[in-house]
Amino acid sequence: MITSLLVLAATTTGAAADDEEASEPSAAAASVGRPVDKGSFGVGIVLGEPTGVCAKLYLDDDTAIQGALGFNFYGSGIQANAEYVLHPWIVQERDAFVLPIYVGPGLRFIQYDGGRGADNHYAIGLRVVGGMLFDFKEVPLDVFLEVAGVVEYDFKDGEGVELALNLGAGVRYYF
Q: Is the Cβ–Cβ distance between 76 and 112 less than 8 Å?
């Protein structure tokens, strides 16, 4: 998934540059990345792993801290995660939106509900996230799609280190 996103970014960046040269740039297209008046803190919902609430705080136009808290349906429990993300590539930029790719490291804490008579147990891990963001310029919203790989240590007896995969999609409103 990450590889295909990177290939998409590489192939469409050249097309975006050709489109910009062919058309007259507008004031909205002249600004790269996020508009200044949109706000830097967003809150919304995420569906997937986890399903719950999410937030993002932009530190700069191309760096942010994001996180989520919600239910984990696989393993049925509660998950909290936070990442420091970079937005190194812009796939497309138009008058109405910017479409950047983001990547970054983070942490995950998860409480697994044992179910079927098993005990609850906890795990903590490193999370590496990559995603694509549909960032509207004139409306204080963004829509995202992301995938994250997790290497976690499960504190349950005999479990040890495990691998996990999180997929999510969501929307955030910015203040």
A: yes
Strand segments, DSSP code E, in 22-120 are 41-48, 51-60, 63-72, 77-93, 97-112
Q: Which residue's entry shows tokens 């549909």? A: 134
> What predicted TM-score, i.e. pTM, was given to this entire model?
0.76
Beta bridge partners of 121: 112
Beta-carbon neighbour count of residue 171 at 10 Å? 15
CA atoms within 13 A on the CB side of 15: 8
Residues 6 or more apart whose CB falls under 8 angstroms from that of 105 comprise: 83, 84, 126, 127, 128, 129
Residue 33 clears pLDDT 60, i.e. is over it: no
Which tokens go with 37? Answer: 């008046």
Q: What angle do CA 73, 78, 83 make, to 5 degrees?
A: 100
Structure tokens at 95: 């008058």
- Please name the amino acid found at residue 141: L
Over the stretch 98-139, which tens digit does the pLDDT of each residue have? Answer: 999 999 999 999 998 866 556 788 899 999 999 999 999 989
* Gap between the Cα atoms of 84 and 87, Å rounded: 10
Q: Give per-residue pLDDT as tens, 128-157.
A: 999 999 999 989 999 999 999 999 998 887
